[in-house]
Design goal:
It is a single chain. By secondary structure, the chain is an alpha/beta fold. The chain folds into two domains: 3-166, Rossmann fold (3-Layer(aba) Sandwich), CATH 3.40.50.720; 173-291, N-(1-d-carboxylethyl)-l-norvaline Dehydrogenase, domain 2 (Orthogonal Bundle), CATH 1.10.1040.10. The chain has helices at 18-29, 45-49, 58-64, 75-82, 100-112, 144-154, 168-195, 202-216, 219-229, 240-256, 265-276, 286-292, and strands at 11-14, 34-37, 53-54, 67-70, 91-94, 116-123, 137-142, 159-162. Strands 3-2-1-4-5-6-7-8 form an eight-stranded mixed beta sheet, with helices on both faces. β5, α5 and β6 form a beta-alpha-beta unit. The radius of gyration is 24 Å and the shape is elongated. The relative contact order is 0.08. It binds ligand FVH. Ligand FVH is lined by residues 15-20, 38-40, 43, 71-74, 77, 80-81, 96-97, 122, 125-126.
């Protein structure tokens, strides 16, 4: 059989918001028979013209195919949409953002209704979907059998990274990475605020900032190594004591530039606490223990 004649898995997709529509288009373009449903039917019209079958209800859409993907606003909308659907024998892949607890509860809820379950945390925005080198991917967790069975189909819109049997793990990875992203955005906001009133072109500053963040990012590997080994001085480059000594300069600079320190102060405070506990020769890793206590 040539690649062109291999039968493509039929997919049911519930939810045609920005992300759902992007997913739908990649499956259609790859030749997967696609049945779609959306609460507001008008959103399905362009996809019908592109070859999707449009179901009148979620119940009907779920009945058509064994692989059912949901990409809705939130966990409550998943519950709403699937309330009357017969999930027995279905492979449910939930790409709706939620907490680890919601992912686990929905896994249990799905099992009780006779279906298998995978949760997916999407690490991409809609324009990255279906673009092979975009860097976008989806974390999956839950049934390993289901992941293996549908791996190729799930890889059509974006890369796949399976992170374990626990349905909550994909959500946890998703939230952890996005939380780190917001920390980075917070640091960048503080940096732009510092130069805001000066004769410094933000457009000239931005590449310096981006390159610096990229250069510093690999430090997370040292953090991981220290967490694994339990020795937070291992491979330390800049000791906590040295870094805490520098923080008054950062805070004074913020004051002189008329910038609130509210984004950076909480982190500096944790650094000082760890130093007070005797972590002066360590890296910044001890801050993590202060957070989880
Ligand atoms: N768009 C993004 O940048 C992010 C990237 C990372 C992952 N997220 C998550 O993906 C889920 C869907 O996001 P979306 O971008 O498609 O969201 P919307 O465009 O707002 O569309 C929401 C869809 O949900 C439907 N919906 C809302 N409430 C209900 C309900 N009670 N019952 C049934 N369907 C519901 C909504 O339908 P309608 O308003 O068109 O009738 C849309 O189809 C999401 O979890 C992101 O966090 C996207």
């Amino acid at each position: 059989m040539t690649q062109n004649t291999v039968e493509k898995t039929s997919v049911t997709l519930l939810g045609l918001g920005a992300m759902g529509t992007a997913l739908a288009r990649t499956w259609l373009a790859a030749g997967h028979p696609l049945t779609v449903w959306n609460r507001t039917p008008a959103r399905a019209t362009p996809l019908a013209a592109e070859g999707a079958k449009v179901a009148d209800s979620a119940v009907e859409a779920v009945a058509v195919n064994s692989l059912v993907v949901v990409c809705l606003l939130d966990d409550a909308s998943v519950q709403d949409a699937l309330a009357d659907a017969d999930l027995a024998g279905r492979d449910l892949v939930n790409l709706t953002t939620g907490t680890p607890a919601q992912a686990r509860e929905r896994a249990e809820w799905t099992r009780e209704r006779g279906a298998r379950y995978l949760y997916g945390g999407i690490m991409a925005v809609p324009p990255m979907i279906g673009v092979p080198d975009s860097g976008g991917y989806v974390f999956y967790s839950g049934s390993p059998e289901l992941f293996e069975r549908h791996r190729d189909t799930l890889a059509v819109p974006a890369g796949t990274v399976y992170v374990g049997r626990d349905a909550g793990f994909a959500a946890l990875h998703d939230v952890a990475l996005l939380s780190a992203m917001y920390g980075m955005f917070a640091g960048a906001a503080h940096a732009f605020a510092l130069i805001r009133k000066e004769d410094i072109d933000p457009a000239s500053f931005a590449p310096l900032l981006a390159d610096w963040l990229v250069a510093m990012a690999p430090a997370v590997h040292r953090t991981a190594d220290q967490l694994r080994g339990g020795d937070y001085t291992r491979g330390v480059v800049s000791t906590l004591a040295m870094q805490v000594a520098g923080t008054p300069a950062f805070l004074s600079t913020a004051e002189q530039q008329g910038v609130s320190p509210e984004l950076v102060s909480p982190y500096f405070e944790l650094m000082r606490r760890r130093l007070a506990e005797g972590g002066g020769e360590e890296d910044l890793t001890g801050v993590i223990d202060l957070l989880v206590r």
